[in-house]
Amino acid sequence: MADPILEIRGLSKSFGALKATDDVTLDLRPGEIHALIGPNGAGKSTLIKQVTGEIAPDAGEVRLSGRSLAGIDAAGRARLGMARSFQVSSVAAEFTVMQNVVLAAQGASGVTFRFFRPVMRDEGLAGRARDCIAQAGLSGREAVPAAELAHGERRKLEIAMALALEPRVFLLDEPMAGMGSEGATALGDLLDRLRHRAPILLVEHDMDAVFRLSDRISVLVYGRVVATGTPDEIRGNAEVQRVYLGEEA
Amino acid sequence: MSTILLIEQLLNGLQSGLMLFLMAAGLTLVFGVMGLINLAHGSLYMVGAFACAGVAAATGSFWLGLAASIAAAAAAGAIVEVAVIRRLYARDHLDQVLATFALILIFSEGTRWLYGSFPLYLNVPPSLSGSVTLPGGIQYSLFRLAIIGAGLAVAVGLFLLIGKTRIGVQVRAGEADREMIAALGVDIRRLYTLVFALGAALAGMAGALVGTIQSVQVGMGEPVLILAFVVIVIGGIGSIKGALVGALLVGLTDTMGRVLLPSLFDLFMETSAATSVGAALASMAIYILMALVLVVRPGGLFGARA
Amino acid sequence: MSPVEQIPAAGSEPMAAAPARPSRATLVNAALGLGLLAFGLGAWAMGEVFMVTLATKVAILAIAGAGLNLVLGYGGLVSFGHAAYFGLGGYTAGILAHHALNYTPLFEWPFLFEGTTSMPVIWLTAMVIGALAAAAIGALSLRTTGVYFIMITLAFGQMIFYFAISWPAYGGEDGLPIYVRNGFPGLDTLDPLHFFGLVWAVLMAVLGGIAMLARSRFGLALQAARQNRQRLMAVGIRPGGVLLTAFVISGAITALAGALYADLNRFVSPSMLSWHLSGELLVFLILGGTGRLFAPLAGAGLYIALEHLLGGVSDHWQFFFGLLLLAVVLFARGGVIGFLAGGKRHG
């Protein structure tokens, strides 16, 4: 089996008496979609934030391609190829689609302190951006301000921005939230293609999508991973059914 | 420098710190509960001072003037809240800054229109004039001593109000979570007007008391407003305790800096140079204090949020 | 949030082949810039020297406002202390001229630093001083956000104000006169028309420079920092460095305006450092239309015109101006340019 690209080892984080993340270990291998599921309040977003560097863990470590990320902040991790989307869409609302994606491409380039040449005429960045917009299925919407996009389009914009970061891993926090079933299916197909660009750690509540798309699923309850396995293994896992799927049914 | 002078200056620092606390308490409550930055708080201080001067001159009674200052500032605060401030809660900080800056122009120029530019002077009430001899043989102004007492009494009252009463519970709930307090069935509009008027009354009272020591004139609230901002940055937004500690720190640093720094430089400089260097540094002392707090604790000494 | 001068659509529409006609905003900008020039020249032709001076004052205040606009309109930072850089620029001009006219050096150690009456040297020095002060104040203030940032920039501005008042060497409270207006090679700066033309050219250069910055990589990141700092981090750009750089450039531009203002009045005093001036610079931007390139010019022009017209009617014009400002903030947030050029606001 190929070496994992992202490794999370023994990660723990407490807020006062609350253990939000309790000794979590999981990994992400090339080409796979690894879904992270669990009831609300299980600590999924807190875990993602420790991986992206927005929150510092109390213990444990995160490694990207074998390199420890300790001491590297969110911007630094993004530049190393950690591309994330947010639970609540987070884009520059007054910018057009094109400007948002060019911004991401600029971030990936690592060069921001240039004061003279117009960035939108920079063919290197613009070409990349157009490419990513096409892959995300937003072609023709380049000049639309992000604030005027429909909800599903804004999720696609987040994916286009993630693509522009030349990602080594995708961390997608509920990309399908709030989408209709048609939109969710289309986005699922898109994720299915993206996994070959970089593996995806997917936090998602849409169980149909999770079981259809994922190669592996980890179940998080009260900050602990109670099971990791293929969709079939997770379906058959008695503890998972008890603590999680049973409650949904 | 004699010990007596030093103690006298310490008392002066305490007195100016407590008056700053009256200003800062209202500002920090309005920040904490309504999320609003109110530059016109200094105008309410001025309104209190002018109301006191006007009523005291008409009736001959300082005490009626003092009561009038509190009533007038509270009324002005309530009117301004209902007419203008209420529309600003949902706006961004820039709009709040500009609208309350406009209020300053209106208040200041309006007051100048009514009273002219010359300062008014208030007389200390006869019962509090003169000085008392403190333990250790220190002569100190009875009125200033009374201000210290009044400031302490208001501070205690405010802590009791916030800590022990229904209104206080609502205010604290409002700081924590605005939606929750609405869900509790509290009339949030009335609560906001009440908090704003309370802050205004404290500012008006401070204006009347300080106006009696110094003078009453247009623009008198502005330097105090900025000092109150420094107090809040040091103490932390929304914290009454922070406002008290910050106000005392600023009052004492400012007063003692002005006395001590020139004499400190006098030790190794010629007197005229020492006086000017010392005075220039003393004018910056509280801002340097603020910068230090920012480096160590960007959220203020008692602040939860940065 | 505030409306923005969007990076032009032509750049963001890859398919747009034909050069677009100038937008309405561009036409309004051109009208404002050329209108000020025409006003100054026309006033000179009619012998209204006072009006030429007034136009010069508008141009200088617009430069100061343009400096503030870079951080406020583009970066979203509400600095309430920009009078500090304006005043420092003014004192730089005053102090350099003072030493030049007295033939005394400012200091001799660690190197000899003499006064000068040459505007280019004064401008450069003023911009360096403004940039240094903005770097120090910005580094501390940018540790915080929101209301704290407003109060802290206000407080540091006030610190410099009180320092100027209590430091007696350069006039203290009384201020410092500049007996002869500083010179510029090839021009007679004492001629109001020459000085106006010079200041107008500087204003256009500053606005052009800001337009260039806004379209650059740096400008894209700066405008993103206003809208969504979390997102900027997530694409690998740290907002702190971007905002501090903008703050430093902003301080330098506002200090340049201060140096010009000192030369206009041939006098510099602590009033240039007062917090009222910081407030007025903010007012220019909201009157003009926050975030728009020419907002400072529109706002400063409107402010000076009102001061002149209302001031002629009533001594208490600021009372009425306060009411007007309140109405603009509460009901007409697009400002003059928003009104003329149409809203470009989203959400």
TrEMBL record, chain A:
Keywords: ATP-binding, Nucleotide-binding, Transport. Residues 6-247 form the ABC transporter domain. The keyword Nucleotide-binding applies. Gene3D superfamilies: P-loop containing nucleotide triphosphate hydrolases (3.40.50.300). One of its GO terms (cellular component) is plasma membrane. One of its GO terms (molecular function) is ATP binding. InterPro entries: AAA+_ATPase, ABC_AA/LPS_Transport, ABC_transporter-like_ATP-bd, ABC_transporter-like_CS, BCA_ABC_TP_C, P-loop_NTPase. PANTHER family: ABC TRANSPORTER ATP-BINDING PROTEIN (PTHR45772:SF2), CONSERVED COMPONENT OF ABC TRANSPORTER FOR NATURAL AMINO ACIDS-RELATED (PTHR45772). This is Amino acid/amide ABC transporter ATP-binding protein 1, HAAT family. It comes from Limimaricola pyoseonensis.
From TrEMBL, chain B:
Keywords: Amino-acid transport, Cell membrane, Membrane, Transmembrane, Transmembrane helix, Transport. Belongs to the binding-protein-dependent transport system permease family. LivHM subfamily. This is Amino acid/amide ABC transporter membrane protein 1, HAAT family. The keyword Transport applies. GO terms for biological process: amino acid transport. It is found in: Cell membrane. CDD domains: TM_PBP1_LivH_like. It is a multi-pass membrane protein. The keyword Transmembrane helix applies. The chain crosses the membrane at residues 18-37, 44-64, 70-89, 101-122, 142-162, 191-213, 225-252, 273-296. Its main location: membrane. GO terms for molecular function: transmembrane transporter activity. GO terms for cellular component: plasma membrane. The lineage of its organism: Bacteria, Pseudomonadati, Pseudomonadota, Alphaproteobacteria, Rhodobacterales.
UniProtKB/TrEMBL annotation, chain C:
Coiled coil: none annotated. The chain crosses the membrane at residues 25-46, 58-77, 84-101, 121-140, 147-170, 193-214, 235-261, 281-306, 318-341. GO terms for molecular function: branched-chain amino acid transmembrane transporter activity. InterPro entries: ABC_transp_permease (IPR001851), LivM-like (IPR043428). It is a multi-pass membrane protein. It is found in: Cell membrane. GO terms for cellular component: plasma membrane. This is Amino acid/amide ABC transporter membrane protein 2, HAAT family.
